[in-house]
Design goal:
heterodimer, A: 321 residues, alpha/beta, Rossmann fold, eight-stranded mixed beta sheet, four-stranded antiparallel beta sheet, 12 strands, globular, B: 347 residues, 22% strand
């Protein structure tokens, strides 16, 4: 059984101008101990998908569909039952380490709260556990550091605290929403390395939400590519990086600036802009920017499967260029 | 003498010379009676030169002083020490009025495209504002014609001239920002992280646009970024900054193959490779810890606290930026002994 399975998830937001369809009929699953990347540009719905699963949508948002976690539907669960799982079985690391920590509370207070609540440890035990965790994420001098406030930490250290907090209860599933985006490249490399190590140690499944294909390549086993609220391609990292089938995935891979390219090779950009989620086009949502678009693309393309776990939403066959 | 002619040519091409530029800020920490004043050396003795039509990439992590440097070059911040020579003229010695005239040549593109545009002005007014400022008597028809021309040049539809910034996407807003910077036909444009707020597919569009425009208009560009992979596609030379000091200034071809400074090498190794096979064998950056606080930088070489090749001398003596045999510049005591060729195991 999959650890988490999403079936036909829809997320919409009510705004004065109408209804924004952030996520449309999204289905995917992740097994225990797996690492899945959800890749897409801003507005592709990658964050709102996980917010809906955690029941953290903004007030004007609504979600439908199923999110089965160990066979139980998170969408139908009441707050009390959900709270038993959030933080303990499912943890989430948010994008911005500056704003996700409470500036008024010491790191200690913020860390031991979760453990005391979920594992019923005493304050002293929880504290010892938190110090252990800080040491695991390589915060120097954790006994002293744990007494400090978030502003006394650098950006990279705050994100490491977030990772430590996420892993405190050894969750089965860790959702990391752009965990390295706000960080400098050298720190980014450290955090990625850390997550790989911790994953190997505790067998935690990871859903990594990101727009950075470089981070994905090093960290994940499978990739789900989203565009304008839809899944457009899903497969193993090798399938996605070496044999991409969807024109959007191909374009995305070509537009990433790489260090291992010859000096004067230009970047191949995808022309145009993503569609407005208020006025989604009929048929294929990537049609207007697609180099291979033809008349058939006015109809909604089917999800094609190759039988080896690779799926793509396009009329192009497995061998079409 | 042919040598002299050649040298004269070279001097003419050199549009911008920055000499020992430093910007220090006074920072107060602590409460009322307990407070202490510190000096934050955001930029601390940076020198470089820029030729006409050349692009210099400036790379560094947050807090290294790259944005402050950009502003100091344009005279938006008064430097504490050092000079900025624009076409041989010291910008710091000019009075307000004279400096204002020079600004026609010197323009900037900002990082956050939406925040850099006034939300209550139409695209026409935004792009035309520099024209009105420098040529108050210009005819309206002429302005409109010029604005439409600029919009076409940066890839916007001229019929969107009456729209407001919120009606555009991030990438389009950055195009508006670029049109505004280029409307006066400047000679130098400083781009302060122009693509870091944009999505990858859009990022590539803007980089390609800047590259095209530079060729077309023979612009000199200073392109600031925090990521070496972005800079690679646009720069002729790259300067690497760390805690307000230049660690290395090298030509692009040399820098990405064999960096001279350990920090450059770490930055290159830290860039994630979008290729699963290569990413798994990716080398460790060798860096430990975080960047020290710029309020209390390490003595000696500012990078010594994180450098994997540190020796005793690094803790005592600040390495000067010096010229190597191939013409590139580096500030490292051990540059000759280290072979930091990318893809080679460290020795």
């Amino acid at each position: 059984m999959a650890l988490l399975e999403l079936k036909d998830l829809n997320v919409a937001f009510e705004i004065p101008d109408g209804e924004v369809h952030a996520v449309t009929k999204l289905s995917f699953s992740i097994d225990a101990g797996d690492a899945l990347a959800i890749v897409g540009e801003s507005g592709s719905g990658k964050t709102q998908t996980m917010m809906a699963v955690m029941n953290l949508l903004a007030e004007n948002g609504s979600a439908s569909g199923k999110a089965l976690f160990k066979g139980e539907d998170l969408m139908q669960m009441n707050a009390a039952d959900l709270n038993k799982r959030r933080g303990k079985e499912i943890a989430m690391i948010f994008q911005d380490p500056m704003t996700s920590l409470n500036p008024y509370l010491r790191i200690e207070q913020q860390m031991i709260e979760v453990v005391m609540h979920h594992q019923g440890l005493t304050r002293a035990e929880a504290r010892a556990h938190a110090i252990e965790m800080l040491r695991a994420v390589r915060i120097p001098d954790p006994e002293r550091r744990i007494r400090q406030y978030p502003h006394e930490y650098s950006g990279g250290m705050r994100q490491r605290v977030m990772v430590a907090m996420g892993l405190l209860c050894e969750p089965d599933l860790l959702i990391a929403d752009e965990p390295t985006t706000a960080l400098d490249v050298t720190v980014q490399a450290q955090i990625s390395q850390l997550m790989t190590e911790l994953r190997a140690k505790s067998n935690t499944a990871i859903i990594l939400i990101t727009h950075d294909l470089g981070v994905v390549a090093g960290l994940c086993d499978r990739v789900l590519v989203m565009y304008a609220g839809e899944a457009v391609e899903c497969g193993t990292v090798e399938q996605i990086f070496y044999q991409p089938k969807h024109p959007y995935t191909k374009g995305l891979l070509k537009s990433v600036p790489r260090l291992d390219q010859p000096d004067d090779s230009g970047l191949e950009a995808i022309p145009g802009n993503p569609p407005n989620l208020l006025l989604l086009p009929e048929g294929c949502r990537f049609r207007e920017r697609c180099p291979s678009a033809h008349d058939a693309c006015r109809d909604t393309p089917p999800m094609q499967l190759d039988g080896q776990g690779h799926a793509w939403r396009c009329f192009l066959g497995p061998t079409d260029e | 003498m042919p040598g002299a002619v050649f040298w004269g040519q070279l001097m003419n091409d050199r549009v911008l010379r920055v000499q020992d530029l430093a910007v220090h800020f006074k920072v107060r920490e602590g409460l009322l009676f307990n407070s202490k004043t510190y000096t934050l050396k955001a930029v601390n003795g940076v020198s470089f030169e820029l030729n006409a039509g050349e692009t210099l990439g400036i790379v560094g992590e947050s807090g290294c002083g790259k944005s402050t440097l950009a502003r100091a070059i344009l005279g938006l911040i008064k430097p504490t020490r050092g000079r900025v020579l624009w076409l041989g003229e010291d910008l710091g010695k000019l009075d307000e009025e004279a400096l204002r005239k020079r600004r026609e040549d010197l323009q900037i593109v900002f990082q956050d495209p939406l925040a850099a545009l006034n939300p209550r002005m139409t695209v026409r007014d935004i792009i035309a504002e520099p024209l009105w400022t420098f040529y108050p008597r210009i005819a309206r028809v002429q302005v409109d014609e010029r604005v439409r021309g600029m919009m076409k040049m940066v890839g916007l539809l001229p019929n969107q001239i009456n729209r407001y910034p919120h009606e555009f996407s991030g990438g389009q807003c950055q195009r508006i920002g670029i049109a505004r910077a280029l409307v006066l036909n400047p000679k130098l444009v400083v781009c302060d992280e122009p693509v870091s707020a944009l999505d990858v597919s859009i990022q590539a569009q803007i980089i390609n646009l800047l590259k095209d425009l530079q060729k077309k208009l023979n612009l000199s560009l200073v392109f600031i970024a925090h990521d070496l992979s972005v800079v690679k596609h646009i720069s002729d030379r790259v300067m690497v900054l760390y805690l307000g000091r230049a660690m290395e200034i090298s030509s692009r071809s040399a820098l990405y193959k064999r960096p001279l400074h350990p920090y450059t090498s770490a930055l290159i190794k830290a860039v994630p490779v979008p290729d699963p096979k290569l990413a798994r064998i990716a080398s460790d950056t060798g860096l430990t810890g975080d960047m020290p606080s710029p309020l209390d930088p390490p003595l000696g070489c500012v990078f010594h606290s994180r450098c994997p090749y540190v020796v005793k001398r690094c803790e005592l003596e600040v390495p000067a930026l010096r010229r190597m045999e191939n013409g590139d510049w580096v500030a490292c005591h051990c540059a000759e002994e280290l072979d930091l060729t990318i893809g080679k195991a460290p020795t």
